[in-house]
Specification:
Radius of gyration: 23 Å
Helix content: 40-55%
Number of strands: 3
Strand content: 5-15%
Strand order of the largest sheet: 1-2-3
Order of helices and strands: HHHHEEE
Mean pLDDT: 79
Low-confidence stretches: none
Length: 98
């Protein structure tokens, strides 16, 4: 589903866009997507350079110890890549819920 957005650009910028791409909407969409991705990556890099305090605790304690300190029920999660329920089993790691 598309939504119409009105954007005002300097005349020279519009001419420069038209020299590169006949379809202005396509060009602007690609530019916006590239900028959003750049900002997402920048945010991730910033997060890595200044991690959340809970992340530092996990790193210092080790994953097994961290899992051992989880509240009851927190060991059941969803694998966001597959949408399947997973469970942490010590010695086995993350396993698909049966």
């Amino acid at each position: 589903m598309n939504e119409r957005v009105t954007v005002t650009l300097p005349e020279q910028v519009v001419r420069d866009i038209e020299r590169q791409e006949h379809n202005r909407s396509k060009f602007i969409l690609q530019a916006v997507q590239n900028e959003l991705e750049r900002r997402r990556i920048e945010g991730l890099q910033r997060s890595l350079s200044t991690p959340h305090p809970d992340s530092e605790n996990v790193d210092q304690a080790g994953i097994v110890e961290w899992i051992g300190r989880m509240h009851e029920g927190d060991e059941d999660l969803v694998n966001i890549k597959t949408g399947e329920s997973v469970r942490w089993i010590p010695g086995k790691g993350w396993t698909k819920e049966e």
